[in-house]
Amino acid sequence: MLIDEADIYMEHRQVQDLVRNNLVAGFLRALEYYQGILFLTTNRVGTFDEAFISRIHIMIYYPPFTNEDREAVWEGFFRKLEDEQGETMNILESTRDYVMCDEVQGLKWNGREIRNAFQIAVALAQTEGDRDKRGRVQVRRDHIKSTVRMSKDFKAYLNKLYMKDETQRAATAGNRLDTFGVPENVLGSEPFI
To answer: For the whole model, what pTM was predicted?
Structure first.
């Protein structure tokens, strides 16, 4: 069984929140006696109630994506689109090249963000309806570039608002440590103001 985004069941209990405490306690009891394999996903491990640590048999740490990981995710989405809609959709080579450039890779998108950007790019291409000689809708570089621009602008806004980037905000709040196990030379420096 999979419980995605299981944060609500796993967060620290607090004296003033009896309803949440009951939810967590009930989940802990159910977890204690569960006989099958249960996968819980979260990106807020720093908020775990300590009682969960002894009840979880195997914890798997996933390091942040590398650029090679991102490339593989993009390629997976490109192949899937070609396999499923290759007769009606075409991804230009310049589009494939663009997602590997420093501008896109520098955003350090995770798999969900890549999927969202890809879906937006495909929707933009379908809306514009620019077709090749075979009548296939063209997914162009500028479709991805529009998404990149919006993402950069919004991240810059959040960074300015909080005076910290996403990694720093997560660490400060104690939610997670994105820099764990990442060599210093890979971290780089992202301006946040």
So the answer is: 0.75
